[in-house]
Amino acid sequence: MDLDRRQIMAAAICATASTEALAATQQNGKSGNMTDTKTYAAVAMQLTARSIEKTPNKAVARKQMLNMIGEMENKIRSAAIFIQQYAGNPVKLAVLPEYLLTSYPGRISIPDFADKAALEVDGPEYEAFGAMAQRLKMFIAGNAYEADKNFPGLYFQACFIVAPSGDVILRYRRLNSMFAPTPHDVWSKYLDIYGLDGVFPVAKTEIGNLATIASEEILYPEIARALALRGAEIFAHSSSEIGSPLDTPKDIGKRARAQENMAYVVSANTAGIEDTTMPLASADGNSMVVDYKGRVMSESNSGETFTAFADINLGALRAARRKPAMTNFLARQRLELFAAIYAGNSPQKADGLIQNNDIQTPDRDYFLRTQEETIERMIKEGLI
Length: 384
What we know:
With about 375 residues, the protein is an alpha/beta fold. About 40% of the residues lie in helices and about 20% in strands.
């Protein structure tokens, strides 16, 4: 199958299958198959990320990561006890910040960073997260860099959800990144291996239909909309961003994605990043929980804290989604209107890291060159 046909097919599937999935979800709700769970609490754990850049080797880096998982378990447990005593409902979902175990790669080469920092999908770090989720009896959503044996020489930034059973029930790879490989860079091969279910995964659980969004992807409405149209009710958003008393683009994005998709957003920011030359509090504060009407229910100040927590009321969300109204934004979608435009006019082209059917390992400057070439092409086409 050539790439053009693959892109058109993917757009058509998103436009039709997602609508069918939404309709089925609504029908299931009417027939009683989608039972409303009791209200529970979700918390955005604002914790300090720790860079592995200064660690001398892979073994030391991995030991540091496992130690961090042990440290955060105690913090989540203490937070959950306080939240239930203070607000009355048990914590069933904890969201962790972006790249908490490693920080960002900086100028480390892609192969070196993959070797030092990228987790194996069945590695000891995920086992530790699973054991933690079992002991805490809650869902844990997080973010880490991850290796994939199907794409040697690369790594992806992954969001994951671990269930109280200890199983990883959702794995999402960031689709839009400025300085790191993404599934879109190897799109034809990635789609053949994982399909659209692996690109836009939604985990249907006893606490609702969960999905994840990575970092600045909260600014891209198509990602949240694709997940919502596949049934997502709660977006776990792992981020590391500049906190401010003023509205930041990401703050606006969190409220917008919640309101337009009638979904909760639980957004965890870092409480700074240790062991880098950057000032500690440069990425700190403003973790928040946003309800399905786009209203901020709670928001953290700076530093390590659990104060961004709130109740998740799935009954109210599902009632709003099933009610005929101008404000039922999901039921009013007409996706066929946009399928052809999206299929034929992607500014950044797919498969940039595939040449002669082989996966290429880029240098760090590849991504900037790609954007510069994209901008130049859009200028020539009269689009910008």
